[in-house]
Amino acid sequence: MLKVGLVGVGGISGAHIPAWEEMENAQLVALCDIRPERMEKYSDKRCYTDLDEMLANEELDILDICLPTYLHADVAVKAMNMGINVVTEKPISLKEEDVERVYSTAEKNNVKFMVAHVLRFWPEYELLKEIYDSKRYGKLLSGTMIRLGGYPKWSWDGWMMDEKRSGLVPFDLHIHDLDFMVYAFGLPKVANQYRSKLPKQDYISLVYDFGEFSINSEASWYAASYPFTAEFRFQFEDAIVANEKGKMMIYLKDNEKIDLSQEAEGDTGSINLPKSDAYANELIYFADCVENNKPVDKFRPEELSCVLKILNNL
Ligand SMILES: NC(=O)c1ccc[n+]([C@@H]2O[C@H](COP(=O)([O-])OP(=O)(O)OC[C@H]3O[C@@H](n4cnc5c(N)ncnc54)[C@H](O)[C@@H]3O)[C@@H](O)[C@H]2O)c1
Known about the structure:
Elements: E1 2-7, H1 13-22, E2 26-32, E3 46-48, H2 51-57, E4 62-65, H3 72-81, E5 85-89, H4 97-109, E6 113-116, H5 123-134, E7 140-150, H6 163-166, H7 168-185, E8 189-198, E9 201-209, E10 214-222, E11 229-236, E12 239-244, E13 247-252, E14 257-259, H8 278-291, H9 301-312
Parallel strand pairs: 1-2, 1-4, 2-3, 4-5, 5-6, 7-10
Antiparallel strand pairs: 7-11, 8-9, 9-10, 11-12, 12-13, 13-14
Nicotinamide-adenine-dinucleotide binds near residues 8, 10, 32, 67 and 118.
């Protein structure tokens, strides 16, 4: 049984904690947050307000880092130097040079490391990659990916609204789509970019050139409380694959359309999407790598470096 500790019991821990609780080969034994009230409802865990104390007292196999972004790399290096395997929330860091620092620390200590880029485990996005790889609907011609929402006012100490600590929209929001593009389609060039950054609002629009096709992408924290929207639409030679308005659809040339949404009624054949939780899928994948000493080969450091290089130029 893998012993897991989690640090940073804020918003996203609400997706990680239940995933660990469901897992059969792992046990979440300890939590750490500087705000003790965040841990009150987890009375069956050993709770710490100091990470060094948790790392010294617990014999952890895995540390799950759900801290604010600017703390990820240093905490990952500290834990790996103690021989602990680390999964951290995205991004690995705001600084490109941290990719080498973190991966070399993992190698030196012979431990596993993963950044939990959740779209790589999200059924709709996994299906899109499978359609691209298999060329089932021909070659990819164009794509659009968007991720929009209102300005995040809820984070601890306002860290998310502080560019030095969160990197704002590029590192907090757009990174999801860019990481997926790099994972699924390779390393792009930026053909065009636009950003409008004002106090309490941030918007970016980019065109990525992949050689044979290009992808348009938008991400925003609008000043207004715009509803959170994460969508894509990809044009293949023989079909449009779209995840829009809460539905995963394939539109075919002969006016036929297939509804692959997780909630869709009836059997749409072998490509029906499984009902699954991407946050659980990513942690299950990492636990399996640790338990069975498998390489974490769904992630390549050069992909993470490419993403941080692009984001640092916005
Ligand atoms: N994958 C996703 O979909 C997704 C979604 C949201 C957030 N995230 C990522 O998760 C990370 C956390 O975001 P969040 O929204 O949960 O933030 P949050 O502000 O809600 O939570 C951060 C928590 O860390 C605690 N903390 C701060 N410093 C600490 C320290 N030194 N020791 C122990 N605890 C400390 C805070 O008290 C707070 O509870 C970010 O890096 C963000 O990019 C990912």
